[in-house]
Design a protein that fits this description.
By secondary structure, this protein is mainly α. It has one helix and two strands, in the order ββα. It comes from Pyrus ussuriensis x Pyrus communis.
Length: 98
């Protein structure tokens, strides 16, 4: 959290982590404060955009997962059928060997 300290300010003059001057001085004293506020705004904007981008990526990833899962479903079913046939053939072979 960024705290700016101005002459004649008190803790009750804080807003969103910034200390606001009780008495506004010259433009030279205001420029650093405005610059700092703009930097904080930019950081918050980047943070929000990264979350939005993350949600977009999550949706893309979820669709890829669904596609991959659909591609896997058929081979898994084929494998299940082959294992069932294999088990039947092993029983028949075992019965012939006895």
């Amino acid at each position: 959290m960024v705290m700016l300290r101005f002459p004649y300010s008190s803790p009750k003059d804080t807003l969103n982590g910034f200390t606001l001057p009780s008495v506004i001085g010259t433009s030279a004293s205001i420029i650093p404060a405005v610059h700092c506020i703009l930097q904080k705004h930019t950081m918050q904007k980047v943070h929000i955009e990264s979350h939005v981008y993350g949600f977009c990526n999550r949706g893309v990833l979820e669709s890829h997962v669904i596609i991959i899962q659909q591609r896997i479903d058929k081979p898994v079913e084929v494998l299940r059928i082959r294992r069932t046939k294999n088990a039947k053939l092993e029983k028949r072979l075992s019965a012939l060997a006895n």
